Amino acid sequence: MSHYLLQRAGQGLLVLWAAFTLSFVLLQVLPGDAVLIKFQNPDLGLSPAQIEEMRIAYGADSPLWQQYFHTLFAMLRGDFGYSVQAGVAVSELIASNLPDTLQLAVPAFALAVALAFVLAFVSRLPALRWLSNAIQSLPVLFISLPTFWLGIALIQLFSFQLRLIPVINPSPLQGLILPIITVAIPISAPLAQILLRSIDQVSAQPFVGVARAKGLSETGVLWRHVIGNALLPALNIAGLLLGELIAGALITETVFGRGGLGQLTQQAVNNQDIAVLQAVVMISALGFVLINLLVDLLMPWFDPRLKTVTGGAI
Amino acid sequence: MHIPFRLPLLTVLMMATSVHAWAVETPVKGGTLIYLEQQAHTNLYPPAGGFYPNGGILNQITDKLTWQNPKTLQVEPWIAESWTSNADKTEYTFKIRPGVTFSDGTPLDANAVAKNFDTYGLGNKAQRLPVSEVINNYDHSEVVDAQTVKFYFKKPSPGFLQGTATIGSGLVSLSTLQRNFDELGDARHIIGSGPFVVSDEKLGREVTLAKRKDYQWGPKNLTQQGPANLDGIKIIVTPEDSVRIGALLAGQAGFIRQVQAYDEKQATDQGFQIYAAPTRGVNDSLSFRPDNPLVADLRVRQALLHATNTKQIVDTLFSPNYPQATSVIARSAAGYTDLSDKLTFDPAKANQLLDDAGWKAGSDGIRAKEGQRLALTVYESLPQPQNKEVLQLVAQQWRQVGVALNVKAGDAGSRTLDNLDPLKTPLTVSEVGRADPDVVKSMFYPANRDALLQKGGSSDKVKSFRDDKLNDLLVSISAEVDAKKRLQLTGEAQRYLLDNAYVIPIFEEPQVFAGAPWLKGATFEAVGRPSFYGAWIAKQ
Q1: Where is the ABC transmembrane type-1 domain (chain A) (predicted)?
Q2: Which residues of chain B from 145 to 184 reach within 8 Å of chain A, CB to CB?
Q3: Does domain B282-508 match CATH 3.10.105.10?
Q4: Most exposed among A33, B393, B410, B515, judged by the fewest C-beta atoms under 10 Å?
Q5: Which residues of chain B make contact with A93, given a CB cutoff of 8 A?
Q6: Could you report the predicted ipTM of this complex, rounded to two decimals?
Q7: What CATH fold (topology level) applies to the domain B27-277+512-537?
Q8: Chain B positions in Cβ-Cβ contact with residue A44 (cut-off 8 Å)
Q9: Cα–Cα distance, B409 to B87 (Å, whole number)
């Protein structure tokens, strides 16, 4: 098991390094740079010579390979550089925005999982079979709702019409309710669909027939035998939904005027604030690696067959 | 909801007309104003205060040497009690009001004022602080005594006095001036002497202002004196248009900036106040870059000017708060000359001019000459109201005379780079506010904003275009001592710009705000930045 863990961690590091290199290259080929964008502002009226001086002052003229290793080693030391646009250290920007993102993403993810389970479970309950079609079509509806529209609609209804939750100057808890729902609904949809299909597949397996033959009730079969076995594919997809979560958070943060990595990324993209973008890419990559590692570690717990494979000869 | 409010209000109104003393309501002290901004502020170095969100903050936290009365446009005392200048306008002497302090406790005296203008007038390379565009021909300062400062100019600088009243000339403490340019993105680093101070900031999201209890130096001609009425202001960045207006109408905010024209009616119908503050400068326009061969021919530029139906643009996209342009600068700007006869919509004339210039209709309906299509590119300008819609409508109008206009959004990098290259962008969107004739020079002079991209200006990609006659005219505006002659020169510059069809003025751009009915006393400086010094929250 520890060998397996080490191997997975090594792969994770490789992924991180690849993400760094790829993003570094891609960000360098973009036309213009943050120094230019900031100082070419007509409000400032600087001459080309003056702007060139600024660029040199920011080290924008040193060779690429030097910038690459400089940035890589600095990041290894935990130094993410300086945001040209905001005029503060990137680490400070991340430190002030990451908690907001986590506060939104973690409960939203939990809510999405809960929603998916409720949907899948309820639609397969024998007592509610007459509703099953309607419930099954909900994920399709959820997935087709644009996050932007959903956010605005929730604000209009709950904040402006019913005046239940203020959207401006809310308490920390009030400020989270609507954004969490906005992020969770589109994420819950693919999860619910996978879970539904997986439940159907497992239900057709012989061992379920055996359980039924032993006289277990339909609900009992679903609860004790089917759900557990149907979890694997859903767990796998859950790891992948992280990307979706970040994209959804970006729009949600803009609509609700919240802080967070999404909003930070959008501003950094607008201003080509490369140091910030590089840091965001690394944090997202790290998030991906960690979640997938977690999923890999949880899998054998759900499916004992995987233990023998992973613990084996590799 | 509405009826119980209406009756007492009506009673108050009736009483107000019968008893004169009631007409002036007594301001209520206290309360925090929630102010929703569309965009986060950028660098708050005062000369960069032209950006709307920056001006909204700087106008509350910094004071200026002088105060420009937004009604009369006269320059009146503020931090300077009085001033004199020589006949040539090459020397100005200001007497500083005693007892003024910055919020860090340091004195705002002659020495501080001298250091401020030395920085704004000359820039500071070591700290990367750029020169202010409102100060022309600056040479040096001299501290005569603790309350007297004298400024010397290389050439006459008649616009300087008004320049001391602008957002870009907000006075900051010596500690602020010692910082590097990149540190001034943090509002907490801007130490001014204004009625409010920055007490907290969440970068990119929220700025909290608190009133200064010891503030005693507001402009002496204002009714408001002493500290501000409000305890504080919370400026919250709310990018989404519908959320800003919705929050205001639902009572979650007291004041919002950037109300779209289509939302105005909704607000006034519910008793909310729309404030359309004029920016009194160069109108929202399209400026040509004649270095691009496609628009180098005067006839092509004239044709496009006459192919543009500005009336249709303001009627379709805007409200009466956005008047159709009748010259290069706004009707309310100093030196305005009505040139609407040069700005006629005349597609027949446009077609004729394009035919004369040798552009023949091609197979796809777009005119072509020697195998080249008359297709132009322009980048959408994000700070201008509904700019994308405006440009798309212009594109439709130009299509009628066989000219293609490609409207691009693009990322900031491409936009910035391409806007410096006349071959890539034969035209650009331009607008700038300032209540002084110098504004025309600010927009078109190569060493300033250089909207036409001249050789030797902001771009090294320009091959040959340079109009020295225009430049001489612009310089003479900024250096003409005789006020009457200066306005006349300003008129000449407008005429010259339109005779050469260098610009297509579209509409006079206001800054549109909306406020709750209970918010009283919000005012606007001469180019539309809000001031909450005298503002107060009435009992609801």
Answers
A1: 98-299
A2: 182-184
A3: yes
A4: B410
A5: 203
A6: 0.80
A7: D-Maltodextrin-Binding Protein; domain 2 (3.40.190)
A8: 47-48, 130, 133
A9: 49
